[in-house]
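FAQ

Q: What does a record look like?
A: Structure on top, sequence underneath. For example:
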């Protein structure tokens, strides 16, 4: 590759959209009687994505995943995995996909390793070295000979991920892998996701808790009542509107606000009622120019940061699960 880092960066973000599509749904729909569990869903997951599939309980995540795995038939629309229509090419596609849908089916009286061996024999044999490898990857190497009955829920989930990884899949689909885990279990699961990402795996991971996946996902889709609300990056989700949060000596606050409001860039300045911080745009949109302006006017800030939106709040608003906001935002 030639060129400087700064020259190549923007290119990467546009190029990646033309990479290999690993999972694609088109107008995917599943109806149960009157209820549209999945409603006209268009999604594209690209190779190397750690794709967060988010939405509150009942949004249609598991139904979508079941269709993607060929476990149930769409009412209409299509789902392609690794370039092939799932319903028509199950036998070709499914061996290249690893999946953990809800809780894994495990033999509790057997050891973790023997559970892996049992699945390996169904797969037609997997080298013992591969078992060692996946056990190590999911952090169960030291506990592989213990009966699964003695495992924590988090360990069982990670064993489920190990099973999904046995055949070295091109796509790993995990349906709420952190569901029901305690905080330590969630941290372990998140570390595991990071290791998978570092391996270059494409991971499709569903969750009803946005903060669970925020640090690991390259892209997220948000689903509410069967419909796609948005498909974007976490950065985009929390991006504010180019405003800054300025903390000032409380005694200066009103004077500073009045002065800023007189500036062409500061007419929408206001004070946050909760934090008592000054919220304002900046000259040319530059925080450093805002800082300079305030310093020169005699109001040196104690702090100045770009404003971001609270991620959980964004999620609640988008999915309409916040009782204060009520409705799901419709997209046309
Ligand atoms: N087999 C089924 N029969 C009838 N309704 C179903 C069935 N499976 C799911 N649903 C309904 O479809 C909607 C989406 O469910 P699901 O995909 O499980 O949501 P999520 O996984 O996001 O919690 C829910 O309203 C659920 O009750
Ligand atoms: Mg579900």
């Amino acid at each position: 590759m030639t060129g400087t880092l700064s020259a190549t960066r923007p290119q990467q973000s546009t190029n990646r959209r033309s990479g290999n599509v690993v999972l694609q749904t088109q107008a995917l729909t599943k109806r149960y009687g009157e209820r549209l569990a999945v409603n006209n869903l268009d999604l594209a997951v690209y190779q190397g994505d750690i794709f967060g599939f988010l939405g509150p309980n009942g949004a249609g995540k598991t139904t979508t995943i079941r269709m993607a795995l060929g476990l149930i038939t769409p009412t209409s629309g299509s789902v392609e995995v690794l370039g092939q229509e799932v319903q028509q090419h199950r036998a070709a596609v499914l061996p290249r996909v690893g999946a953990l849908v809800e809780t894994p089916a495990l033999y509790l009286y057997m050891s973790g390793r023997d559970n892996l061996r049992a699945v390996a024999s169904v797969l037609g044999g997997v080298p013992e070295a591969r078992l060692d490898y996946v056990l190590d990857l999911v952090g169960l190497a030291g506990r592989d000979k213990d009966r699964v009955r003695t495992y924590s829920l988090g360990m069982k989930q990670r064993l489920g991920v190990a099973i999904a990884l046995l055949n070295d899949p091109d796509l790993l689909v995990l349906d709420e892998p952190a569901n029901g885990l305690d905080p330590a279990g969630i941290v372990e699961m998140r570390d595991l996701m990071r290791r998978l990402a570092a391996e270059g795996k494409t991971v499709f991971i569903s969750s009803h808790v946005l903060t669970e996946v925020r640090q690991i996902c390259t892209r997220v889709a948000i689903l509410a009542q069967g419909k796609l609300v948005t498909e974007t990056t976490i950065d985009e989700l929390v991006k504010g509107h180019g405003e800054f949060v300025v903390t000032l000596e409380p005694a200066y606050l009103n004077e500073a606000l009045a002065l800023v409001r007189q500036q062409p860039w500061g007419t929408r300045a206001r004070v946050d009622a909760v934090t008592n911080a000054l919220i304002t745009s900046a000259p040319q949109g530059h925080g450093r120019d805002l800082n300079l302006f305030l310093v020169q006017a005699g109001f040196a800030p104690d702090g100045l940061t770009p404003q971001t939106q609270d991620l959980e709040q964004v999620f609640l608003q988008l999915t309409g699960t916040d009782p204060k906001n009520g409705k799901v935002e419709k997209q046309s």
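Q: Is there anything notable about this one?
A: The longest helix spans residues 183-198.
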